[in-house]
């Protein structure tokens, strides 16, 4: 999770990194706990050595048919001492681990200070906002008027935050996902991967979704988890591995269903498809050497931007501030699409460099020149399909309620150039 050796060397720097996220200092307490743990382990090793020596002495006395009662009393006392030292060391280790599990990744130095999304920094804007000669509608108004976006039936089947898509809108969703996959695999070297939608605790923990985000995910009765994003199985596929150096970088992509409980989002984005319990996303994951992670982060973000550019969606890249950067990320770029119906910028992709944070949790390494070293992992949306469809619908809407199909999607739509 965190490098204890580096923490011991400079607990003040560790606490300064936490302070950037608005967290209280814990560095000195962790160092003290670690010193106590190591002292217990040293005492344990000494007691185990003494017990081994006594065992030899008892064996020798027994072979000589001499009395061993006094020495056996000492051996029993040592056994009890060893058990107490083991329990003490394990208790302290658990206490240290519990604290470390709860702490977020250290932020990159280039991440700006700030407490909320209001202090995120605009890196650049791509495209011009379309001017409309009529009052624009939101995606759900367009979809329901076309009879192709059905929320009441979804609520009857599953409750709120679900949707049934029909006809051309169902095909548009499929077309977007296929277009994204084809772009990432044929042009940018990502390996298409079909992943399980159910994963175990280890995969969720390794990708920093547990224990902090347990309430945001759905769990089955047999103890598995519905994936909140394909980042989890893609990244965890190298869990416990020591990879050959020449195998890196590894770039994977998956188009999958994702599931989120949306805990704590009551009252937010109630109408429409912006915040769903089930949604489709095209995920990008990279596993790289540490020295390559900054360049890979920029590359991944540009790959996601390419999809938006080809769809003709106006968007901006945001560098997230300290207070808005996610738990596992060292640095994050968000891509926000302009939605003419909402008249607002909304997140459509998030590309994060986690450095070795996830790798430490997963014990994912590669064979470096000086021995096994932790890899760096990165993940990004390339893109969230439902939100991309919202952007397409609102950007390409016509006054009569019809929706033009972006040219790059028409081959995936059987040549259809307009819905409605």
Automatic annotation (TrEMBL):
The keyword Transferase does not apply. Pathway: Aminoacyl-tRNA biosynthesis; selenocysteinyl-tRNA(Sec) biosynthesis; L-seryl-tRNA(Sec) from L-serine and tRNA(Sec): step 1/1. L-serine binds at residues 229-231, 283, 381. Pfam families: Seryl_tRNA_N, tRNA-synt_2b. It is an enzyme of class 6 (ligase). Its EC number is 6.1.1.11. Keywords: Aminoacyl-tRNA synthetase, ATP-binding, Coiled coil, Cytoplasm, Ligase, Nucleotide-binding, Protein biosynthesis. It is found in: Cytoplasm. One of its GO terms (molecular function) is serine-tRNA ligase activity. Residues 171-411 form the Aminoacyl-transfer RNA synthetases class-II family profile domain. It catalyses: tRNA(Ser) + L-serine + ATP = L-seryl-tRNA(Ser) + AMP + diphosphate + H(+); tRNA(Sec) + L-serine + ATP = L-seryl-tRNA(Sec) + AMP + diphosphate + H(+). ATP binds at residues 260-262, 347-350. InterPro entries: aa-tRNA-synt_IIb (IPR002314), aa-tRNA-synth_II (IPR006195), aa-tRNA-synth_II/BPL/LPL (IPR045864), Ser-tRNA-ligase_type_1 (IPR002317), Ser-tRNA-synth_1_N (IPR015866), SerRS_1_N_sf (IPR042103), SerRS_core (IPR033729), tRNA-bd_arm (IPR010978). Residues 44-95 form a coiled coil. PANTHER family: SERINE--TRNA LIGASE (PTHR43697:SF1), SERYL-TRNA SYNTHETASE (PTHR43697). Consists of two distinct domains, a catalytic core and a N-terminal extension that is involved in tRNA binding. Homodimer. The tRNA molecule binds across the dimer. Catalyzes the attachment of serine to tRNA(Ser). Is also able to aminoacylate tRNA(Sec) with serine, to form the misacylated tRNA L-seryl-tRNA(Sec), which will be further converted into selenocysteinyl-tRNA(Sec). Belongs to the class-II aminoacyl-tRNA synthetase family. Type-1 seryl-tRNA synthetase subfamily. This is Serine--tRNA ligase. It comes from Gluconobacter potus.
């Amino acid at each position: 999770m965190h490098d204890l050796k580096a923490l011991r060397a400079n607990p003040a720097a560790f606490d300064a990194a936490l302070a950037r996220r608005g967290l209280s200092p814990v560095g000195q307490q962790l160092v003290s706990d670690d010193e106590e743990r190591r002292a217990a382990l040293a005492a344990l090793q000494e007691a185990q050595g003494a017990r081994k020596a006594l065992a030899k002495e008892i064996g020798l006395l027994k072979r000589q048919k001499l009395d061993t009662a006094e020495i056996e009393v000492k051996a029993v006392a040592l056994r009890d001492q060893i058990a107490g030292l083991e329990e003490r060391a394990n208790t302290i280790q658990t206490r240290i681990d519990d604290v470390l599990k709860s702490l977020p990744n250290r932020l990159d130095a280039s991440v700006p200070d700030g407490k909320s999304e209001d202090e995120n920094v605009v890196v650049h804007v791509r495209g011009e906002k379309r001017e409309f000669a009529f009052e624009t509608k939101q995606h759900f108004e367009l979809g329901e008027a076309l009879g192709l976006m059905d929320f009441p039936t979804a609520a009857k089947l599953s409750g709120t935050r679900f949707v049934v898509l029909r006809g051309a809108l169902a095909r548009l969703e499929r077309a977007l996902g296929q277009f994204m996959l084809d772009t990432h695999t044929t042009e940018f070297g990502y390996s298409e991967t079909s992943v399980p939608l159910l994963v175990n605790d280890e995969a969720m923990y390794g990708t920093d979704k547990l224990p902090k985000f347990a309430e945001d995910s759905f769990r089955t009765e047999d103890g598995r988890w519905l994936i909140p994003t394909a980042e989890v199985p893609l990244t965890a596929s190298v869990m416990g591995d020591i990879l050959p150096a020449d195998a890196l970088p590894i770039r994977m992509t998956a188009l999958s269903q994702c599931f989120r409980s949306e805990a704590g989002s009551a009252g937010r984005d109630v109408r429409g498809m912006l915040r769903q319990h089930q949604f489709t996303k095209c995920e990008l994951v990279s596993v790289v050497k540490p020295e390559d992670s900054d360049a890979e982060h920029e590359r991944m973000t540009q790959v996601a931007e390419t999809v938006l550019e080809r769809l003709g969606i106006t968007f901006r890249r945001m560098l997230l501030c300290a207070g808005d950067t996610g738990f596992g990320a060292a640095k994050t770029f968000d891509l926000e699409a302009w939605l003419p119906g909402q008249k607002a910028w909304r997140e459509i992709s998030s590309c994060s460099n986690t450095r070795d944070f996830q790798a430490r949790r997963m014990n994912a390494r590669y064979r470096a020149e000086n021995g096994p070293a932790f890899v760096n992992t990165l993940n990004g949306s390339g893109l969230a399909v439902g939100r991309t469809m919202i952007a397409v619908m609102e950007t390409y809407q016509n006054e009569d309620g019809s929706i033009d199909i972006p040219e790059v999607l028409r081959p995936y739509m059987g040549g259809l150039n307009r819905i409605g």
